[in-house]
Amino acid sequence: MFKRMNSVGPRVLVVGILAAVFASGCTSPEKRTGIGAGVGAGTGAIIGGLGAGWKGAAIGAAAGAATGAAVGNYLDKQAKELAEVAATRRVKDGILVDLKSDLLFDVGSSQVKPKARQQLQQLGQILVKYPDDRIRVEGFTDSTGTATLNEVLSRQRADSVREILQSQGVRSDQILVFGYGESRPIASNTSPTGRQLNRRVDLIIDVPQGRVPASK
Fold first, then answer.
1. H helix intervals, the chain
2. Nearest Cα residue to 88 out of 99, 104, 72
């Protein structure tokens, strides 16, 4: 009977983790730290359980919960600081900072405006305090112009943002840059308002899976 329970147990834990992951996409930002701890606990329990039975599962669960909570607290603290400078929110994958390209650049240009440069420098001064960050800089455009030119322009704008962050001490190996052109609109390109929303640069901030961030 005990052998049967041990063989089924990891499957039950897997189901529990999947349920927690699904729930994290449907809950408020305030609860994500706790969910991160729960998912970390479940993952640690499976790893520990497979390696050393249920005693190992308990040890793995504790270690996983600590890691998940540390990551959640790290991201929550950082999101609050970033929100004082730019539109910021916690998302399932970490932190999203939304930089409106119409405020950063003139139409058709990748040169950052002076006021926007100051904002990006402030963001860089915050990000440099979080050396465990993994930062994706993603550029987008509206549908005006050809798809090829828009892809190039979106990448150039993302590169401009990256350079300013690096000027404040953010390491180059923390940053990945992507230009998606007009391919991922968040509004209709049939109106000036929609096109304005689609001209943007996003920063997506997370930490590598399994890493316990250094506290600051």
1. 2-24, 32-83, 101-104, 114-127, 147-167, 192-198
2. 99
pTM recorded for the entire structure? 0.69
How many CB atoms within 10 Å of residue 190?
A: 9
- Average pLDDT score over residue span 97-120: 91
Classified as helix, coil or strand, 177 is: strand
By the 10 Å C-beta count (0-12 exposed, 13-18 middle, 19+ buried), 22 is classed as: exposed
CB atoms within 10 A of CB 69: 18
Amino acid present at 189: N
Q: Across-strand partners of 179?
A: 139
Within 84-133, residue ranges assigned H as helices are 101-104, 114-127
Q: Which residues pair with 91 in a beta bridge?
A: 94
Type of residue found at 82 = L
Q: Indicate whether 5 pLDDT > 80.
A: no
Domain 84-206 CATH class label: alpha beta
Give 179-214 as a DSSP string.
E-TTSS-SS-TTSHHHHHHHSEEEEEEE--TT--PP
Residue 139 and residue 169 in contact, taking contact as beta carbons nearer than 8 Å? no
- How many C-beta neighbours within 10 Å does residue 83 have? 14
Who contacts 6 (Cβ-Cβ below 8 Å, separation ≥6)? Answer: 53, 54
Q: Which residue bears the tokens 């404040």?
A: 168
Report the Cα 161 to chain-centroid distance in Å.
17
Closest residue by Cα to residue 210 from 29, 49, 95, 70: 70
| pLDDT score, position 57 | 52
Average pLDDT over residues 113-137: 96
